[in-house]
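Final report, closing paragraph on structural work. Over the funding period we assembled a curated collection of sequence-structure pairs, and we close with a single example.
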Amino acid sequence: MEQYETALTEAEAALDAYTVGTCKEEVAGNEVVAAIFNACVEGMGMKDDTKVAACMSKSVPEEQRLDLRLDNRWGPEDGHPLPFVRRNPIIFALSPPVPPKEGSEEGDVASGVEGKAEGGDGGDGGGASGGETELNQWSLARADPDGFRGGMVSFFEARGPEHEEDADEKAVALARKRWTSLLLFDFMCSGALCAAPEAFDKLARCSHLIDPTTAAPLPLQHHFSNLMAPIRAMRGRQELDSTPIVMGCQEMPVDARGEAKLREVLPEGLAYYRPTERGKGETGASGGTDEGTGFIYSNFLAASMKDVTDDLAPDLTQFLADQGVKPVVAATTLRKMLIVTVDLFYTGAAQSSGGEETRVEGAVGATTPKLAVATLHCKCFYKQAAQQGAFVARLIEQASKLEGVVGTVVCGDMNLDSPWPDKTSAEVQQASVGAAEFGCFPTAEGEGVTPIVNTNVTDFSTTVTKSGLQMVTPPTNFTTLKMRTKFQAQAGKIGAVAMGHKDQLVLPMDMHVTDVIVAGRDEADPSLSPTAANNTNMSLLQPSRMWPGDHFAVVAAVDIQLSKYVAKQRKSAAAAFFDAVLVAVGASKAR
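Its predicted structure, as stored:
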């Protein structure tokens, strides 16, 4: 820990030392970039000795403060048709520094740049590159800092400040300030990495993305496999090998390379579904090919799985409009919504050891009972959380009217907002989270601690339960917990804790939840168990080596209570119905 703290101090000092004058020198060779940059920093009142990191703080005058709103919009894969990608060797350390070749698989780099790079200065593995590895921004910035910065300059020249052609003077000035701010931030990160390579190497080894022994990037399969841990655990402790599994997922891989790596590590007998061609219909509600919403499910459900999103989208679109939900919130939520139905019967023939067999053809009785499962990735409803709860109830009501559906489950990222009281310092946030009951929101109020504002979670859960539904995750529990660092483009939030009750399973009251796992910890390791002496909420910060996602997964074994239905419908002694199902909401952002 002492070595980590020393490395962190050195890395932060390198970040703090970078000046506007240094950045001027590094862009001086490009007349177009230098002209815009120099004029803008002068207009912002910056001098050559102005420290860039200091200008990220709210304590500096507003005209000097960096406006980094482009950081979330301009990424290496933002789809902008440029021959260059945005480079920042800290923010995008493991991303390729050049675009893929046209028509190639993702990961192949453009001609003229080798696909391998040596790890920096030959020290202990070159940080995240770990010697020779696939080309990434971290390794190239270390191996060829001048060439790396040249690519940065080329990107900012090609992209340029973006504004409408007929924009007024104020809009043009704002576009230039945001462009200049992002340029300063990216060059500061590059300069800090090159100024303190050993410190950053040590920090890199602490990342969940890096093998701590070799300092090489861990493969994507490693992270995907960890995300499947709660499914494997639930199967094992419930002996549910033949129980159908339907896991709603958000931000799944949207490229062929990522999908292939996910399939490599799926637990035995599971398949993967994400719509690749979806009609948007009249409402425009259905997700396209890049939404990342999908399902991981049991192979033997494949033949009966039906995407019914477009059948329900018109009603749900109108419902949200009638509820007065903001159009952008409604549109995003509906676009990322995915609803499927699956049959709830099988025969022995459907249970082959390889999991390749699908269900036996032929309905049992008048109508085969079906389960509807919806996965959501909602845009934040903020103070309209009650309307969001009503939307979930409406979805379950309408899906349950589809032919043969005997039950509906909604799972997903509800994105409920749980803000801190105004002006709560980062120190008080951390202390409050650490002092709270394990896995729960802080509720105590006193010296050095404060409760979080959970009004939105309460509004949502109250509406859901009044609709005759149950929530698997109690509203007192959080499912996401993150903390900003100095190496992100949000200096005003350094040390601030973001926690929320985001991930949820909602189902009818007459379904019995027999077991639940809220993932994020390896209970097999005694040092990580809830009874460990050093165990606090702050040890749950995401992502980590324990859990590579930024949301916990919620997995539930559910008794569907089909016995009465089956007694009426069964016509064949050879057929049997599932009385239980494993449903889950997957962790987000593990692409």
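Residues 103-133, 279-289, 347-366, 567-577 have pLDDT under 50 and may be disordered. Residues 163 and 174 are 9 Å apart (CA to CA). We thank the funder for supporting this effort.
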